Amino acid sequence: MSIAQNPLFTSLRKSFANVTAYTLNGQNIIRAKAFNPKNPKTVAQKAHRDSFKLIANIFQMFGQYTEFGFVERKSNLTAYNVFMAANLPNAIDKTGAEPVVDYSKLLIAKGSLPCVEVTNCELNNNVITVNYLTKNGLPKTSTTDEIVLLVVLKNGAIYVARQIRGEGISSSIELTSRHINKIEILCAYVFTLSTDGKKASNSVYVEI
User: Which of 2, 30, 66, 174 is the most buried (most CB within 10 A)?
Assistant: First the structure.
């Protein structure tokens, strides 16, 4: 901004090119605007926008399941808020020409309970069997906690199995569907919910 003293600019009130002129308190004011304002689209900015869209789409795919997966979130935060915060920095693979989701690093649940320790996973005759250690006796665990197995197919279909943790040293959870076969599976996860549903563990990616 500049103040014009030249009498040629007496009582100006006009815009031309990148200049706006007007009179304020008896003084002529001239403001210059930048030529060719830009909205830069750098490679990094595009990658961030693409990554954000990818994680937002994944959130929509999981729908209601993120509500109890992120049940320990603060009251002023939505499941969307915490899902994006948990996954945008960590669950995107940027090593290629375009960012892609790294499902092995994706969290569909996050909380204070101990994670499920998977010892083995098998798929036979449309039945997925996940074996795990119960971790009974550890702080914040209960034999009546619920183990949740969630399997997502490439067509977007989601299958869920739920059962109590169990009392032994180890246990297993099964999910059966005639639609499940290895080439159709996009990703699978297990996590724990407390008996009252108010706490959860971090989800664990299951390699099938």
Answer: 66
